[in-house]
Design a protein that fits this description.
By secondary structure, the protein is an alpha+beta fold. It has one domain: HIT-like (HIT family, subunit A, 2-Layer Sandwich). It has six helices and 13 strands. Strands 3-4-5-7-6-11-12-10-9-8 form a ten-stranded antiparallel beta sheet. Strands 1-2-13 form a three-stranded mixed beta sheet. Helix 1 packs across helix 4. The protein is globular. The two termini are 31 Å apart. The mean pLDDT is 93. The structure holds zinc ion (ZN) (2 copies). The site of one zinc ion (ZN) has 6 residues, from loops.
Length: 314
C-alpha cells in the first residue's frame, strides 16, 4: 500500500510508492567519470586558487586544503535593503571550498577512515573560526558529487557557506531537537528500528522514515551533540567510518551516483542534535513534487536500509 508519511522533524510529507518502485539493483546510474585532466584543485595548481585559509598535511604535503570560493554566493559587505514587502539584505558571509584529497578523480568514500576523519576535522576548524564573526548566524556545510547534483568541479570537494541568518529548515528543527533525551534523534533506535543501517557505540546510520530519495540516509552521533566541535576524537572517527561505509555501499550499489550531503548543525549555544543528511540524486522531481512540496519516493526506506545492511556486511 502506498503511504503518505510525515517527517517527524519537519512539517514535510512524502509518498512512499513501493509498487511503482524498482528493486535496489534497478537504480544503477550510468556513472560519471571523474578521472581525466587535472584541474586547479590539483597539487601544483595552488597558485590558481584564492589565497589558502587552512590545510592539513601528511609527510610535508597537503592532503586537505581550504580556500575562498572563486565565485562566492556571499559578499563581505553588510547592508539592509528593506523596501516593505520586498525584503533584501546584502548576502553577507563567507563562501569557502574544502578540497578533500590531492588525488584528482578520487572518491571521498574510497579514502581511508583516518583521512575522512581529517576532512571532518577541517569542517570543525572552519565552523569554529567562522562562528567567531558576530555577523554570522549559521554555517552551512554541503557536498555536491556529480554534475546532476550541482558539482561544477570534478575534483572531490565540500563547500562551506557562512550566512547572516538561520535557514528556515534549521529553525524548524531547533524546536524539535532541543530537549536532550526527549528529542527524536536521542530516541532514534526506537523510532527507526527496522530502518537502522549500522550502529556502533557512538554513531547511528539510518534510512529515515519519510525519505524523499532512494537510498537516502542520515548519520547522527548517539550523544545529544549540537555541532561538530562537540564530537570527541572517537565520535569523529566513528562518524567518519559510518560515512565511509554508507558511501561505499551506495557507490557499489548504484555505480557512483550523483549525490549531495549536508550537515544539520545547531547554530551555536542552542540545544540541538546534529546529523548528516545524504541525498542520492537518482530520481528527477516532476510537477507533483514542485507543485505540492510532497515527494514521491519509489524506494521505501525499509528496502534501502535492508539493502545497505546487506552491502555493508559483505
Ligand atoms: Zn583536480
Ligand atoms: Zn538528542
Amino acid at each position: 500500500m502506498n503511504q503518505l508519511r510525515k517527517d517527524y522533524l519537519l512539517d514535510r510529507w512524502v509518498i512512499i510508492a513501493k509498487k511503482r518502485g524498482k528493486r535496489p539493483r534497478d537504480f544503477k546510474h550510468e556513472g560519471e567519470k571523474r578521472v581525466g585532466k587535472s584541474c586547479f584543485f590539483c597539487p601544483g595548481k595552488e597558485h590558481r586558487t584564492p589565497p589558502e585559509i587552512d590545510r592539513i598535511e601528511k609527510d610535508g604535503e597537503w592532503i586537505i586544503r581550504c580556500f575562498p570560493n572563486k565565485f562566492p554566493a556571499t559578499t563581505e559587505k553588510k547592508e539592509m535593503l528593506d523596501k516593505g514587502l520586498l525584503n533584501a539584505m546584502a548576502a553577507y558571509g563567507r563562501h569557502e571550498v574544502v578540497v578533500e584529497t590531492p588525488i584528482h578523480g578520487e572518491e571521498l568514500g574510497n579514502l581511508e577512515v583516518e583521512h575522512i576523519a581529517k576532512v571532518l576535522e577541517m569542517y570543525t576548524r572552519r565552523v569554529v573560526e567562522l562562528k567567531k564573526d558576530p555577523g554570522i548566524e549559521y554555517v552551512s556545510i554541503f557536498k555536491n558529487r556529480g554534475k546532476t547534483a550541482g558539482a561544477s568541479v570534478a575534483h572531490s570537494h565540500t563547500q562551506i557557506v557562512a550566512l547572516p541568518m538561520i535557514p528556515g529548515i534549521i529553525r524548524e528543527e531547533m524546536k524539535v531537537l532541543q530537549k536532550q533525551g526527549d528529542c527524536p534523534l536521542c530516541r532514534i533506535g526506537d523510532i527507526e528500528g527496522e530502518r537502522t543501517v549500522r550502529e556502533d557505540k557512538y554513531t547511528v546510520v539510518f534510512a529515515p522514515y519519510a525519505s524523499r530519495f532512494p537510498f537516502e540516509a542520515r548519520i547522527t552521533p548517539k550523544r545529544h551533540l549540537s555541532s561538530l566541535e562537540e564530537l570527541n576524537k572517537k565520535e569523529r572517527e566513528s562518524f567518519a567510518l559510518s560515512l565511509k561505509e554508507v558511501l561505499t555501499a551506495l557507490n557499489k550499489s548504484t555505480n557512483y551516483p550523483p549525490y549531495n550531503y549536508h550537515l544539520h548543525l545547531g547554530p551555536g549555544g542552542e540545544d540541538f542534535h546534529m546529523y548528516l543528511e545524504l541525498l542520492p540524486r537518482l530520481l528527477t522531481w516532476g510537477g507533483f513534487e514542485l507543485s505540492n512540496d510532497i515527494v514521491i519516493n519509489t524506494m521505501s526506506p525499509e528496502t534501502a536500509a535492508k539493502h545497505y545492511r546487506e552491502m555493508i556486511k559483505q
